[in-house]
Design goal:
This protein is of the alpha+beta class. 29% of the residues lie in helices and 26% in strands. It has a 7-stranded mixed β-sheet with strand order 6-12-11-10-5-7-9. Strand 11 and strand 12 form a beta hairpin. The protein is elongated and about 75 Å long.
């Protein structure tokens, strides 16, 4: 091979290397530029899906509260979710877009869900060079509609409903951010808290006929674990601890680190579980004092508590009365 032919061969090799490098550069540009734009599209889709699911949840709730049926509420939820998705630029079967709405409908005494999915291919500008002209970009949003019926991490403490109405005017609160001192029930046969400044210890049981017998050891186990480690439902039984001196329980609460907010059970004069409220526990003092002190930060079954979709370990979700709290539309996914 003469020198001229060698130079031609080198130029040919350089051209091949340049072409390979150009493809690699375009592929990298595709990942960076197209990937960034696809991420932006996914964020837009998620925002639209979240808003659509919330709109569907509120429409479902409004229809049932206004006297509609489960069927009409589901139809209203579907229409509202699709309308909001369209308002935000995503209409089913337009511009290769797919908008799906699934309503798992039940009465307001149970929990319903509205799920919205949005999918639209992302048209790539650079990644098409390496055979990826589009990427599927899809999202999902789900809301739960219902009445707060579960508390997570509930401390084994019960208060009378009068504690939520300390001025006795028939309405909750006011909740001043100053500690109130709460004592155990007096010694004797009565173990239920019956006034606004009394509490008692408790445990939580399934409402299925199993024995439910509170004792100091079981209560302390719940305290030491930071509260009941699964959801406590309105359908569960509670059992108050027998009146007496339980000094070690106050120390166990103090060891959790105070001040701290916990869900606590609220009962009526007969001991029936009405629901839960968030309580700011400021101090726990044993010894000769034996008092908890703090204040309530929410009303009964406030939306900050859980709306459980399904009620394991209970075989059937217990119904909850709307009079006990608020209706909730809550984005959960």
């Amino acid at each position: 091979m003469n020198r001229h032919d060698a130079r031609k061969s080198q130029r040919g090799q350089a051209l091949v290397l340049f072409a390979i490098s150009l493809v690699a550069i375009l592929a990298m540009a595709g990942l960076v530029l197209d990937g960034g734009d696809a991420f932006r599209q996914r964020r837009d889709e998620q925002n639209a899906a979240d808003l659509a699911a919330m709109a569907g949840g509120y429409a479902y709730l409004d229809d049932l509260v206004s006297g509609g049926t489960v069927s009409t509420a589901a139809a209203a939820a579907d229409a509202a979710a699709r309308a909001v998705a369209t308002k935000n630029g995503y209409t089913d079967a337009v511009a290769e877009t797919t908008v799906g709405v699934v309503v798992q409908a039940q009465s307001l005494a149970q929990q319903s869900t509205v799920t919205v999915t949005v999918n639209r291919p992302h048209a790539n500008n650079f990644a098409g060079v390496v055979g990826q002209s589009t990427w599927d970009v899809g999202v999902l949003a789900r809301v739960v509609v219902g009445i707060p019926n579960a508390a997570y991490g509930a401390m084994p403490v019960i208060f009378n409903q009068k504690a939520l109405d300390p001025d006795g005017d028939g309405s909750p609160g006011p909740f001043p951010l100053t500690p109130t001192r709460y004592d155990e029930p007096p010694s004797g046969d009565e173990s239920l808290p019956l006034d606004e400044t009394t509490f008692n210890w408790t445990i939580f049981c399934q409402a299925n006929g199993n024995p439910c017998n509170a004792n100091s050891s079981g209560v302390q186990d719940l305290i030491d674990s930071g509260g009941y480690d699964t959801a406590v439902y309105l359908g569960m039984d509670i059992d108050p601890l027998n009146a007496g001196s339980h000094t070690t329980l106050y120390d166990a609460v103090a060891d959790q680190g105070l001040p701290r907010d916990w869900p606590v059970a609220i009962v009526d004069d007969g001991g029936a579980l009405l629901g839960f409220a968030m309580f700011h526990l400021a101090n726990s003092e044993g010894g000769s004092v034996k008092q908890l002190s703090g204040w309530f930060v929410t009303d009964l079954n406030d939306p900050s508590l859980g709306v459980q979709d399904g009620c394991a370990p209970l075989p059937v979700c217990p119904p909850a009365s709307a009079s006990l709290g608020w209706y909730v539309v809550k984005l959960v996914e």
